[in-house]
Amino acid sequence: MDARFLYPLESCKIIHLLRHGQAMHNVAAEKDRNALLSPHLFDAPLTDHGHQQVENLRERVVSSGLLKRVELVVTSPLLRTMQTAVGVFGNEDKQQNIPSSPSIVALEVARDRNGVRPPDMRRNVSEYQTLFPTIDFSQANTFFHFSFIESEEDNLWRPDVRESEEEIFARGLEFMKWLWKRPEKEVAVVSHGIVLQHMLYVFANDCDKTITHELCKRFANCELRTVVIVDKGLSSSTAN
Predict the structure, then answer these.
(1) Molecular function (GO) terms listed (predicted)?
(2) How far is CA 165 from each of CA 112, 145, 184, rounded to the nearest angstrom?
(3) From CA 16, how far away is CA 188, in angstroms rounded?
């Protein structure tokens, strides 16, 4: 084993990054990318295959003990991600063999690339609250403005302007800062491929180049990727 680094546990946080299962717009886009502009794909739900992916991952998460370790789940407030978050980490069916499940909160900062494409526009919060009674939508005043679910309607999605990759990177950076400040030591994030990639780009310069490509590659549907982030300042002071 080639062990290059050693850090105290108190300076580390484990983040599990999960892309949503296959959704209707993913299938449509494989045939025609222009389908992503269709209003019929508004807030696209999971496909039957996507639900099966979620069910399969749920079994792995339970059998591995990961469900018991995760203390908080942060999800994008879009239908496909919340279906995935609840399906993998929730316990809405009150299964007897699952004594407890982590809290699930929905934050705007975790949502997909914003604008132009109807699949990336969310529904009204009240509709989601009916569909997902165990998800907390009240986390306004959490951190910077993009994370707030400030209104019933989606005021962030713009029909004529697509969010830039620079903007996605900026909120990925703020999101990671917020996650680090949270008291939980093990957190799951259920989001979208491009958002998860940009969250990982935040740490790309701290990784060996041989690792960066593999770490930041495109996420498959329902792929779970785990990283450990380290406060090097804290680890240095501990070492001294």
Answers:
(1) phosphatase activity
(2) 11, 18, 29
(3) 4
Distance from chain centroid for Cα 162: 20
Q: How many of the other CB atoms lie within 10 Å of CB of 67?
A: 20
Contacts of 163 (CB under 8 A, 6+ apart): 113, 114, 115
d(CA 154, CA 151): 7
pTM of the model: 0.87
Q: pLDDT tens digits for 186-200?
A: 999 999 999 999 988
Indicate the helix (H) or strand (E) that contains 16: strand 12-19
Return the structure tokens found at 22. Answer: 């296959």
SS3 226: strand
Residue entry with tokens 């132009």: 116
Nearest to 52 by CA among 16, 88, 104: 88
Determine if residue 80 is left, alpha or beta; phi over 0 gives left, psi from -120 to 50 gives alpha, anything else beta: alpha
Which strands, in side-by-side order, build the sheet including 135-136? 135-136, 103-106, 72-75, 186-191, 12-19, 224-230
